[in-house]
Amino acid sequence: xxxxxxxxxxxxxxxxxxxxxxxxxxxxxxxxxxxxxxxxxxxxxxxxxxxxxxxxxxxxxxxxxxxxxxxxxxxxxxxxxxxxxxxxxxxxxxxxxxxxxxxxxxxxxxxxxxxxxxxxxxxxxxxxxxxxxxxxxx
Length: 138
Description:
The chain is of the alpha+beta class. It has helices spanning 8-26, 29-42; strands at residues 45-50, 55-63, 67-73, 77-84, 86-92, 100-106, 109-113, 118-123, 127-135. The protein has a 5-stranded antiparallel sheet with strand order 1-2-9-4-7. Strands 3-8-5-6 form a 4-stranded antiparallel sheet, with no helix packed on it. The longest helix is centred in the first third of the chain and has 19 residues, at 8-26. The chain is globular, with a radius of gyration of 15 Å.
């Protein structure tokens, strides 16, 4: 259970560890195969969850082909978790766009990105990525 007073990136960090621990505990080959079959049939999945202090949008995507995004900006705090495959992400300095750090996010790893973060991303073909976006309550 997560304290309802925790919001934003801290909330997503707590969720990240809960999900990754569950994936490690229950993950086996048939679970991944079933997930891939479901994603192929339904052409990926997305669901919105409303909580007292927070609104979350969860999506799970199977990338049949590799995907590259160059210098895109996140509009909301976002958590992504690699369920299968690899995602390489470059994070750019907000003040000096030439400065960057690159990270390889592998299976059962995740990263929380704050609103307005500028990134470039490469996702390998066959990867399954879970994204959880935190919508701001107005």
